[in-house]
């Protein structure tokens, strides 16, 4: 059974940094690709960043230049380094891997 567990969320002041990690278990091979999404209260879930099998990455416009997604096969994890955080980054952050596997989410709150 594939399971995803996110850690690293918390409360941080604007301009600060957090690193989220998504530990994946139950896969029969290394993580091929993965994504981070977020959902703020009253908002739809939106794509924050994704990493492809070949290592290419894509980011949402609002986080480009501030967030970095990476994949660590030795830990079977997908990480999201978030720098220069803004209050509008406040949301529950979810990890996703194909096909159809979601984590439970971790809360990120950025105070102004």
Structure, briefly:
With 112 residues, the protein is mostly beta strands. The protein contains no helices and eleven strands. The N and C termini lie far apart (40 Å).
Q: What about the largest sheet?
A: 7 strands, mixed
Number of helices: 0
- The separation of the N and C termini measures 40 Å
N-to-C series of helices and strands: EEEEEEEEEEE
The helicity comes to: under 10%
Helix/strand-derived category reads mainly beta
Unreliable stretches (pLDDT < 50, length at least 5) are: none
Q: What does this protein structure show overall?
A:
The protein starts with a strand and ends with a strand. It is mainly β. A hairpin with a 3-residue loop joins strand 9 and strand 10. 0% of the residues lie in helices and 53% in strands. It has strands at 3-7, 10-13, 18-25, 34-39, 46-51, 57-59, 67-72, 77-82, 91-97, 101-102, 106-111. The strands form two sheets. Strands 2, 4, 5, 6, 9, 10 and 11 form a seven-stranded mixed beta sheet that branches. Strands 1-3-8-7 form a four-stranded antiparallel beta sheet, with no helix packed on it. The protein is globular, with a radius of gyration of 13 Å. It contains no helices and eleven strands.
């Amino acid at each position: 059974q594939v399971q995803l567990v996110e850690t690293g969320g918390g409360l941080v002041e604007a301009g600060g940094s957090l690193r989220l990690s998504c530990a994946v278990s139950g896969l029969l091979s290394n993580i091929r690709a993965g994504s981070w999404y977020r959902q703020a209260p009253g908002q739809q879930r939106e794509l924050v960043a994704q990493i492809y099998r070949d290592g290419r990455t894509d980011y949402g416009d609002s986080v480009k230049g501030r967030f970095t997604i990476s994949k660590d096969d030795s830990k079977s994890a997908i990480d999201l380094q978030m720098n220069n955080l803004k209050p509008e980054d406040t949301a529950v952050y979810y990890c996703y891997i194909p096909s159809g596997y979601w984590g439970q989410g971790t809360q990120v709150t950025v105070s102004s």
